Amino acid sequence: MNISYYKAVKAERLKLKRSPVWLAFFALPMISAFFGTMNYKMNLGILKSEWFSLWSQHSLFLCYFFMPALIGTYCSYLWRLEHTHHNWNSFLTAPIPRFSLYLGKLTQAVQMAVLGNLWIFLLFYVCGRFAGIQSPFPAVAAEWFVCGVLGTVVICCVQLLLSLIIRSFAIPIGIALLGGILGLMITNRDHGLDYPYSIYCMGMRANNPDMTIDIPALVTNSLGYIFIFSFLTILYLHRKEIAAN
Amino acid sequence: MITLKTEFQKIKRRKIGLTMAALTGIQFVWFLWATKNPDEKELTQGWLNLLYSLPLLNVIMMPTIMSVLASRLSDLEHKGNTYKQLRTLRRPGILYDAKVLCGFLFVAAICAAQILFLLVLGYCYHYTDTLYPHYYLSAFLLNLGCCFSLYLLQLNLSLLFFNQMIPLVVGLCGSLLGLILMFIKMYSFLPWGGFLSCTLVSMDWNVETRVVTYFYREHSAIELCAIGMVFIWIAIFYMTGRVAFTRKEV
Fold first, then answer.
1. What are A's interface residues with B at a Cβ cutoff of 8 A?
2. At what angle do helices B16-35 and B46-80 cross, to 10 degrees?
3. Residue A236 pLDDT > 70, yes or no?
4. pLDDT by residue (tens digit) across A21-46?
5. pLDDT tens, position by position, B124-143
6. Domain residue spans in chain A?
7. Do B22 and A84 touch (CB under 8 A)?
8. Are residues A218 and A201 in contact, defined by beta-carbon separation less than 8 angstroms?
9. Looking at the whole model, is its pTM more than 0.90?
10. Mutate which of B32, B65, B169, B188 to disrupt the A interface (most A C-beta within 10 Å)?
């Protein structure tokens, strides 16, 4: 399993070579950070919690609406490589278990999403210093990052399943955007941790950096969703005649 | 006309209408959620509130919805590698016009559905303020203009790039940009900020009493220019897109 997994990851990396898909994860957080910092600087009279205020400006819209859609775009791209031409035939006849093939895709998606999150935090730190915040960087941000990464993996699993089933490139992205918007409504009803698209925002404390959340529930729900959606994806890969277009 | 008919035949069973209905349906759910259990004050400015909320929701969602629509209409040509075959049968300019018109019909249907939904919602809640039909008609036309300009931009990108990730990411960036612009000014000359310029209602939020008061907006000269910019964008995107598509090497 280990060797086949590494082979699958290596194959996925080769497929993505020289593809500028990472640019999206670079650009979108930059827009959010730039305007978020500008808004923070313009409203210093109201926003007095320094790092926490800046974080809410940086992360609110990005985490609720755009990161799920961005992850959806990346996952759609990963499966699009197989959906076009006759690539399913070579993909499914590769001498590697389908479980490993799926893990190869998931690893790529998670890797990119984690790098995206790291970029968001790096921008947060740089913009905070640039905005003149003198207090030390909050240690609790490490917890936001870890919880955010868990939420990211959940979205990756959901989107990989959707993009596998739906051959269209764009529809899963639309679903991800809607998922994010519905997440806002569900979080307002205090069920944020039960819904796959809002676990990420809750983990990142996007709407309220002071908020205390039930970490064991977040971890349990995330692992549960990861297991369920991964299982469904692998089952679909095994059962369906995907190659027959 | 034949080419337009062919466009609709190509998208048969691709469930584009259903996709658009689902995406617009979420907006309706949002409206139902945001306007539920109105109090006395909210009932007195319900029609105004709906006109204020529609462009703000559109500024977030429409760039992405338009990118999905444009990508769906273009992707079948990329996947099937049909450009070469199609262009031997019809002139490329006509093919482009057919795609534009096909998308325009979807956009018009979405905008009409939005306004109809707001009217039904308002009548169901028995809002007590006066409904001015010409404001709703203007909102429909301006909304249509904004959506169509974004559709043209996205169509051009989707036709230009085989990798559909690029237009979709542009759509997402546009949504984020529009949302952020909303916090800066209520008008913008950028294509994604057109919804803000075309908002017909403004609001005043009293910090001390925490009461929101809506009123019909009187556009300044620069705001009217920003509205005009929406239609200039349509002309720019249409002309550049048509030229690029006609000259595209297949």
1. 19, 21, 23-24, 27-28, 31-32, 35-36, 38-39, 61-62, 65-66, 69-70, 73-74, 76-77, 80, 84, 168-171, 173-174, 177-178, 181-182, 185
2. 160
3. yes
4. 788 888 889 988 988 898 888 888 88
5. 998 888 888 999 999 999 99
6. 50-239
7. no
8. no
9. no
10. B169
* SS3 call for B225: helix
How many alpha carbons lie under 13 Å from residue A9 in its C-beta half-sphere?
Answer: 14
Contacts of A170 in chain B (CB under 8 A): 67-68, 71-72, 75, 164, 168
> Which of B14, B29, B169 shows the shortest C-beta gap to A73?
B169
Task: Report the chain A residue with the minimal C-alpha distance to residue B185.
Answer: A39
Q: Are B61 and A61 in contact (CB under 8 A)?
A: no
Tokens linked to A225:
């969703």
Residue given tokens 């979205």 in the structure block: A155
Q: What type of residue is B121?
A: L
- Reported as a pLDDT band with limits 50, 70 and 90, residue A178 is confident
- d(C-alpha A54, C-alpha A138), whole Å: 12
Nearest to A104 by CA among A229, A185, A3, A243: A3
Q: Residue A162: list chain B partners with CB under 8 A.
A: none
Cα distances (angstroms) measured from residue A94 to each of A87, A89, A100, A119:
11, 9, 11, 35
Helix residue ranges, H only, A17-97: 22-42, 51-61, 67-83, 87-92
Domain boundaries, chain B: 2-247
ipTM of the complex: 0.80
Residue B134 identity: H
Mean pLDDT of chain B: 88
Reply yes or no on whether the pLDDT at A245 is more than 70.
no
User: Are B175 and A31 a contacting pair at CB < 8 A?
Assistant: no
In Å, how far are A222, B54, B110 from B35, measured between CA atoms?
32, 12, 21
Distance from C-alpha of B121 to C-alpha of B123, rounded to nearest angstrom: 6
